[in-house]
């Protein structure tokens, strides 16, 4: 007759149960979506589409190219991997959106420095691309129009394996530092007056 021993080694059973219960599962892809408007933004002479772009708009034709309003979104990711970036124009008025991704820094008059990829749509639809991003590096997503008449409300999405972390605009940093300094001075003054 066949004898079955239910638990020959309780340690192996407990270890197996623990591994089954606590095995990490891959986290779902993170998506960060934001809206903006290029209508009243500064103007720049954008890059031409490419991976990476090698020309500024108009260089091949010997023209001034496209000088269009733009908006910049600074961000970083907490996990290296493949990320998909997409942008679409507003739902009421469609315009040809143009996206350019920069790494480490962005300056509107040095368009070809640090640019990784640029993509556009010619149908008023969605511009999209995928790119490997490295954790803790700064990225700058520039949203602009394909032509001079292309500007307005837009929605951009960034999705990938890790969390997308917006970086506060550097223009706000001096104001934040001043406000923090004033707050500290007022707090010290209050403590000084209470001790008297």
UniProtKB/TrEMBL annotation:
Signal peptide residue numbers: 1-29
Source taxon at top rank: Bacteria
Protein name, as recorded: PEP-CTERM sorting domain-containing protein
Protein species of origin: Anabaenopsis circularis NIES-21
Keywords: Signal
């Amino acid at each position: 007759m066949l004898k079955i021993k239910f638990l020959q080694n309780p340690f192996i059973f407990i270890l197996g149960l623990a591994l089954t219960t606590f095995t990490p599962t891959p986290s779902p892809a993170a998506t960060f979506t934001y809206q903006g408007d290029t209508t009243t933004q500064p103007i720049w002479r954008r890059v031409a589409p490419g991976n990476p772009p090698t020309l500024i708009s108009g260089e091949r034709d010997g023209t001034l190219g496209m000088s269009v309003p733009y908006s910049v979104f600074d961000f970083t990711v907490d996990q290296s991997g493949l990320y998909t970036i997409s942008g679409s124009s507003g739902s009421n008025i469609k315009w040809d959106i143009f996206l350019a991704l920069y790494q480490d820094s962005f300056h509107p008059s040095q368009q070809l420095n640090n640019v990784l990829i640029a993509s556009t749509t010619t149908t008023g639809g969605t511009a999209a691309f995928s790119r490997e991003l490295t954790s803790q590096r700064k990225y700058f997503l520039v949203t602009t129009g394909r032509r001079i008449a292309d500007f307005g409300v837009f929605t951009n999405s960034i999705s990938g394996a890790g969390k997308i972390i917006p970086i506060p605009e550097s223009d706000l940093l001096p104001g934040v530092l001043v406000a923090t300094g004033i707050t500290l001075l007022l707090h010290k003054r209050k403590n000084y007056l209470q001790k008297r």
